[in-house]
């Protein structure tokens, strides 16, 4: 853990420095939207044991055994966990923030994929989540001055999103070379979303990048080849797919730099989830991890991932201690891994500038 005694003191002294926190993204930060959209067999497992077993002690719709990164972010600022947008307004206080993230969501509009005859996990994109925000906005603030005051001081977290824009075509046989051609379009979509939120009054924004795709059990299971040169000798991850991730992240970092130039009145934080993640794979035992690449919960095989027997489906097996694993279900990470990634981003050095720099500006 990178937080010093001073950081811990700062964290405990914070109490709602932002009037609200709004999050947009996919399954890495979904806190219960997808499970409310669709309770089919595809989604159903996240509503069953062992999802949620570590922290909440019951399934919440999070794709983990416990909390995810956005949970640790809001905790650091003294905020309650963000309710999923689809929890509905009845009995839910959205004034202090809401989570629009949906498991399986893409950055690009769903028509981009359907036009290529690609099947989506769920029909939800970043533009859909922005529409949700726009629908909700009139209930959050009532006058132009009220909205300006409220939204300019709120924190907007735009991502992580984009991973499914690559997962969908790659899992359906599209070549890596073709997928690489879509990266600039994906990043431009995220940048455009930031501009939409700025148009609504956002002035404090965190933009996370992608975690290393080539280290996930699903990629290692579906795309591994006998050639040893495919694997990173330091961590055993698939180099080609981590190169895809770093290409996306490079363009995203450049896009954030451009946004800063175009909108000097807005404070942007580029959150480097990738570097905060890859250190766990490079030196797992330094962070208490015993098993680096195998999923804690899965259907067997070298990486304990079987697309026919997903976590929580009949026939799955479960590790005894999820805190010793980085990978939770072959696609998503354990609470322990998310906690380390979040600490690296919240307390440094994996955010540029520090997220705490957004307080009081």
From TrEMBL:
On whether Ribonucleoprotein is a keyword of this UniProt record, the answer is: no
Asked if Hydrolase is a keyword of the record, the answer is: yes
Among the Pfam families in the record, one is Lipase_GDSL
Which InterPro entries does its entry note?
GDSL, SGNH_hydro_sf, SGNH_plant_lipase-like
**UniProt keyword annotations, A-Z:** Glycoprotein, Hydrolase, Signal
A Gene Ontology molecular function term for this protein is: hydrolase activity, acting on ester bonds
- SUPFAM superfamilies noted in UniProt: SGNH hydrolase
Give the protein family: Belongs to the 'GDSL' lipolytic enzyme family.
Write down what this protein is called: GDSL esterase/lipase
Q: Which organism is it from?
A: Acorus calamus (Sweet flag)
């Amino acid at each position: 853990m990178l937080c010093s005694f001073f950081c811990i003191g700062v964290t405990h002294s914070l109490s709602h420095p932002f009037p609200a926190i709004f999050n947009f993204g996919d399954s890495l930060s979904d806190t219960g939207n997808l499970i409310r959209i669709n309770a089919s067999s595809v989604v159903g497992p996240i509503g069953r044991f062992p999802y949620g077993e570590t922290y909440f002690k019951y399934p919440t719709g999070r794709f983990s055994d416990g909390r995810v990164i956005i949970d640790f972010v809001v905790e650091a600022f003294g905020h309650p966990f963000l309710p999923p947008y689809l929890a509905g307004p009845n009995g839910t206080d959205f004034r202090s923030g809401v989570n629009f993230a949906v498991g399986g969501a893409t950055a690009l509009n769903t028509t981009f994929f359907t036009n290529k005859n690609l099947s989506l996990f769920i029909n939800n994109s970043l533009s859909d989540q922005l529409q949700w925000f726009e629908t909700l906005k009139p209930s959050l603030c009532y006058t132009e001055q009220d909205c300006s005051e409220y939204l300019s001081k709120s924190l907007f977290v735009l991502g992580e999103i984009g991973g499914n824009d690559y997962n969908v075509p790659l899992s359906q046989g599209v070549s890596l070379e073709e997928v690489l051609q879509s990266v600039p379009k994906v990043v431009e979509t995220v940048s455009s979303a930031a501009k939409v939120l700025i148009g609504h009054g956002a002035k404090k924004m965190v933009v996370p990048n992608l975690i290393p795709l080539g280290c996930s059990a699903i990629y290692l299971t579906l795309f591994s080849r006998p050639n040893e040169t495919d694997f990173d000798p330091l961590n055993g991850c698939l180099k080609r797919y981590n190169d895809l991730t770093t290409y996306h992240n490079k363009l995203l970092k450049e896009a954030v730099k451009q946004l800063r130039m175009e909108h000097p009145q807005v404070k942007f934080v580029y959150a480097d989830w990738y570097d905060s993640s890859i250190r766990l794979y490079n030196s797992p035992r330094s962070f208490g991890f015993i098993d680096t690449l195998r999923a804690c919960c899965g259907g067997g095989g070298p990486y304990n991932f079987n697309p026919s027997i997903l976590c929580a489906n009949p026939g799955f097996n479960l590790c005894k201690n999820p805190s010793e694993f980085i990978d939770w279900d072959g696609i998503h990470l354990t609470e322990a891994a998310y906690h380390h990634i979040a600490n690296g981003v919240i307390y440094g050095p994996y955010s540029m500038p520090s997220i705490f720099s957004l307080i009081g500006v």
